[in-house]
Structures are given as C-alpha cells and as structure tokens.
Design brief:
Largest sheet of chain A: none
Largest interface: A-B, 52 and 43 residues
CATH topology of chain A: MetI-like fold
Distance between the termini of chain B: 52 Å
CATH architecture of chain A: Orthogonal Bundle
CATH superfamily of chain A: MetI-like
Mean pLDDT of chain A: 85
CATH architecture of chain B: Orthogonal Bundle
Helix content of chain A: over 70%
Radius of gyration of chain A: 22 Å
Low-confidence stretches of chain A: none
Structural class of chain A: mainly alpha
Shape of chain B: elongated
CATH class of chain A: Mainly Alpha
Low-confidence stretches of chain B: 227-240
Mean pLDDT of chain B: 83
Number of strands of chain B: 0
Strand content of chain A: under 5%
Order of helices and strands of chain A: HHHHHHHHH
CATH class of chain B: Mainly Alpha
Oligomer: heterodimer
Number of domains of chain B: 1
Number of helices of chain B: 11
Shape of chain A: elongated
Chain lengths: 228, 240
C-alpha cells in the first residue's frame, strides 16, 4: 500500500503495540468477555453433566467401562472434526462452540472425578457404613468431600484446555480471543493483534487456574499444611 | 437434498472429490506428511532431554511446567505466530507448531519411563562397573520402552488431530476440506463439511488403533502386565 495511515508516521508491524491496544480496547474487551463467558458456561455445564456420570460410574461398576470408553473415543475425535460434524445441525454460532468444548471438558472432569472417588480408602467407606450412613449420605458427606482434590484437578485441567480450545470456534465465527488472533493473521499478518489475543488467552487460562486453585484450597481446609 | 449426512455420502461417493488436485488423496498425503515430520521432530527433541532428565533424576518440575504451559497455548496462536518469525510461511512453520504439541507427552513419558526403572537393576548395573551412559543405554532405556511407546502413541494421535487446524493458515491437510466447506456457506457446504469431519475423525481413530497395536508389539512380554500396574500408579501420582 502506498498511502500512510493518517496520524502515524510509519505503522510498521511490531510484535506488540500499546497504540493498537488503546485504539481497539472495545473490540479486545468484547472478545475477552466472550471468551471468558464461553469458558465459564462450558465448564459449568460440563461439570453438571460429568459429576452425575462419575457417580453413576462409581456406584454401578459395570457402567464405568462404557462411560470411560465413550468419553475416550470422544477425546480422540479432533476438535475441528467435531465442529464439522455438529455445525450443520447446530448452526453457526455460540451453541456449536459450547457443545464442542463441553464434550471435551466432560472427559477430563469425568476421568478425574472417577479417579478421585475410587481413591477413597475402603476402610473409611466401611466405617461410614458401620456408622449407619446410607448410599446418599455416604456420597455427600464422605466420598465426595474426599474426592474433592481429584474433582478440582479435573476442573482445572478442563478449564485451561477449554480456554485454548474456544479459539478453534473461529471456524463458526465465535472464537472469542481466537477471533482476534485470526483477524490479525488475515489483516496482513498484523503481529500486534495476534500477540494481544494470544497473551490474553494464556493470561485468562492462568487467572482462571489460580482462581480454581484458590477455591480448592478454600473448600479443602483439612489438606492445608500437609506435605503433598 | 437437504439432509447434510445424505449430502456427505454423495460427496464422498464422487470419485473426483478424491482424485482431483486438492482432493482427499492429496490432502491425506499432506496431512500424514506433516504429522510424521512433526512427530519425528518432537521425538528428536523430547526423547534425549526426557531420558537425560530421568537419568539424572532432576528436572521433574520442568517436565510438569512444559506440559502445563503448552496446555494453555492455543494451537491457533502458534500456527499464526510461527510463520511470522524466521521460519517463514509454509510447511516448516506448521511442522514446528505441531511438534510443540507433541513434546509434552513424549517428554513426560521418557522421563517417567527412566524414573520407574527398577533401582535394584540400576544399582546392579553400576556394581558391574557400567558408566552412567552405559546404564542409561543398556538398562534404563530398554526398561523405558513401554513408556516411550505409550508417549509416542499419545503424541502421534494428538498431532494428527491438531494437523487439521493447519488449514486455518492454509497449511494443507484434511482440515482444508472442512474449511472449504465452511467457505461455501453451511447450506451448500454442509455435506462437504460433514464429509471432511468424518475423514479427519476416521484418520485420528485409525492412527490410534494402529499405534495401539504397535505399542503392544514393541513392548516386551515380561513388561506388559507390570507396566499396566506401574502406569496406573504413575497416573495416580500425576493426578494428585
């Protein structure tokens, strides 16, 4: 291009530019909000579906194999293929993105919750039974609290990978910060835009991970101070 | 026909869609080519480092850090950033981006594989006068083979899956078919989108199955049952 952008002498193509961030703060914040809300909704839905599944797998041993196998097969399917298989039915937009990332988060949470539940020591379970706890009482008062570290590990892994995965939503036009990254690539490879999207993505993953870690510490006070 | 699956079947049954330039066969070749290059590159980097770290017993934190950080980096970001660096546009940048995602499973399994080698075997080898390098080559490495194979399988499946995203930067591969379908608009391209999705998903599962067989073949018989128990223990520790 021969003409210059009005007020800048030479825009160049730096890896990062505060000028860009200031000029486009609205777009950037909107993308960040969209990304965060998609991630939060996805992890919440996945957790609400995954926990009952994990409990079912825990209570009815024969179900554990099929549930884990099903989520395992799901995980082998590449994300873009899953988008391709769902988009013609769910349309272009947030519903498709949410469905895909929920399916992936599901596996991680189920796996870790099942592992956490199965790590409850058998003597503890027997003691609870001896004290007269029923199936539900034992689950809510004994097994789930003891499985909390496993469940939280699953939630953290699921959250971090969901943040990264949402960017693939670009293919249906709702990739959150991925939208920024991809637009930068298409706008004549504008590095500052790509970098801003990437940094915010990694930062969002880090912040959400720390939040969940803090939450984990808050809800498992009995683990504090114990050597890992 | 408005049913997308019907359209997908029609699309897949058109021989020209397979043999045309840029058809399924071309894209499959590109997909496998760049995946193989990426896994190879990942192995060349991750295995020596992982084996060495495992041998010296240091760097466990580094292994965890690498896998956590790569989990948080979006594939799309690496695919768009790397071509703008000295790598330049084209195949090398895509291969490096994919290799980055192959490193964590390769590294972690190489490290764990050496760490889990029976300490008595290691001590016996030392007592026989083997040097550090000899212990690594003749004792620890053979014992780590099941882990190396498991890591290879995880990494390869992951790379084949991720290679579909190379289409975002026109890097070729089967993902290109899906992207072209989305480019057509969902009503017109629905069949092609689903056909591409089926091809990509089918390839990933095929690779997973083939490598599962390979993994079993390269694992020496005596290591098979013990390995399973050990690996479960390793998973449990990693998960805590």
């Amino acid at each position: 291009m021969s003409f210059r952008l009005s007020y800048r002498a030479d825009p160049g193509n730096p890896w990062f530019s505060w000028q860009y961030v200031r000029d486009n703060s609205d777009t950037i914040l909107a993308a960040l909000r969209d990304h965060a809300s998609l991630t939060a909704r996805a992890v919440l839905i996945a957790a609400l579906v995954a926990l009952p599944l994990a409990v079912a797998a825990h209570w009815f041993r024969p179900l554990a194999g099929p549930i884990l196998a099903f989520t395992g097969v799901l995980y082998t399917i590449p994300s873009l293929a899953l988008f391709a298989l769902l988009a013609p039915y769910l349309g272009i937009g947030a519903v498709t993105v949410l469905s895909v990332v929920v399916l992936y988060a599901l596996l991680v949470i189920v796996r870790n919750a099942v592992a956490g539940l199965s790590q409850v020591p058998p003597d503890v379970r027997e003691a609870a039974e001896g004290m007269g706890y029923g199936r539900w009482g034992r689950l809510l008062r004994i097994e789930l609290p003891l499985a909390l570290p496993g469940i939280l590990t699953g939630l953290r892994l699921a959250t971090v990978s969901t943040v990264a995965l949402v960017t693939v939503g670009v293919v249906v036009g709702r990739g959150g910060l991925g939208q920024l990254i991809f637009a930068g690539f298409q706008n004549n490879f504008y590095k500052a835009e790509i970098m801003t999207g990437t940094l915010l993505c990694v930062l969002l993953a880090l912040v959400l991970d720390l939040l969940l870690a803090g939450l984990g510490r808050a809800v498992t006070p009995w683990l504090r101070g114990r050597p890992r | 026909m408005s049913n997308p699956v019907g359209q997908a079947v029609v699309w897949l049954n058109d021989p020209l869609n397979w043999t045309n330039p840029g058809g399924v066969l071309d894209r499959l070749g590109e997909h496998l080519g760049m995946s193989a290059a990426a896994v190879l590159l990942g192995c060349l980097v991750a295995w020596p480092v992982g084996l060495w770290l495992g041998h010296t017993g240091r760097g466990g934190g580094l292994v965890v850090l690498v896998s956590n950080v790569t989990l948080a980096i979006p594939t799309l970001a690496l695919l768009t950033i790397l071509p703008l660096t000295f790598l330049g546009f084209g195949r090398p940048a895509v291969v490096v981006a994919l290799a980055v995602f192959a490193v964590p499973p390769l590294l972690a399994n190489a490290y764990t594989g050496v760490r889990q080698a029976d300490p008595e075997a290691r001590d016996a080898a030392r007592g026989m006068g083997l040097s550090g390098g000899q212990v690594l080559r003749q004792v620890e490495l053979p014992l780590a083979v099941p882990y190396l194979a498991a890591g290879f399988r995880t990494a390869a499946v992951q790379v084949v899956a991720t290679a579909a995203l190379a289409s975002f930067v026109n890097g070729g591969g089967l993902g290109q078919i899906i992207r072209a379908g989305f480019g057509l608009d969902i009503a017109a391209g629905g069949g092609q989108i689903i056909a591409g999705g089926l091809l990509v998903a089918g390839l990933a599962m095929l690779v997973e199955l083939v490598l599962a067989v390979v993994e079993r073949l390269v694992t020496p018989r005596p290591l098979r049952p013990a390995r399973r128990a050990n690996r479960r223990a390793a998973d449990a520790v990693a998960g805590s």
